[in-house]
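One-letter codes give the sequence; the fold follows as tokens. Both lines appear below.
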Amino acid sequence: MKVVVDDKIPYLQTPLRSIVEEVVALPASDITPEVVRDADALIVRTRTQIGKPLLEGSRVRFVATATIGYDHIDTAYCLSHGVAWTNAPGCNASSVCQYVECALRLMEREGFISLAGSTLGVVGVGHVGSLVKSMAERLGMRVLCCDPPLQEAAGQEEAWEFVSLSQLAEQCDVITFHVPLTSVGPHVTYHLADGAFFASLERKPLFINTSRGAVADTQALKQALLLGQIRQAVIDVWEGETNVDLELLRMARITTPHIAGYSADGKARASQMSLDALCRFFSLPRVSAEQPPLAEQPYDIDADSRRLKAAPDSFEYLRNHYPIRRE
């Protein structure tokens, strides 16, 4: 049995080698049709596009992505060609929550906001958003939640817990996005934060995006900063990654290379979920992912921001090389 693995996914190669005959670990850019042709399974990140161009003619039967998001997987192709796939929902939820809390505390220290008594709007109240809600309430913030799909699923008896995006725009001092990227269906999130959204903001909120870059219209976001429609921005995800909009990089206070969910703990959980799914699919004995080492220091979100501002062309390198961060 042959498994091809993205070599930037930590904590799983050694246990994986103990249960399968061949493990090929490569950078995402080197995971090509030729490499996967005789592979039985893939374990990847968002940098690997899973679909016909990569899988056609291969013997791949199973794909695990060690990420929450799976918009890099052509799920329709996989379904029609007998390729099972799995993601790692919730693996890095507490890591993203930690990132948002660090951003909020930094913004408070620098005078952009006073947390206690202010109102936080959470757009998307899934694994991440629900933790952010609890964290913000612990900090003394009032929290409003916007999640139309969840609201519909909850039914009328729980509808009072949710508000519309326009209500967030009216009442919130901070708005943070935790939604998947969708471009079709009843609840499209592509450019959810567009020019009309920013123009509707009444309290000049702090804007935070740790979901997907295209959830926010970059040009509209820059205009919102220029016009003072928002008081500042925390940007971890970018349209057109790995290319960073240099104007937005300069204008936003906190800018990081898509690492909000990149704690060592989150990575270890994702690796374990991928291993578990692979072992279930192929009826292999369960193995445990390696444990991450201790961090040398507490998480410094500003240091991550300074590194990207100093070297925006090194986005991918910075995403893959930084001090161990524990939650």
In short: The longest strand covers residues 2-6.
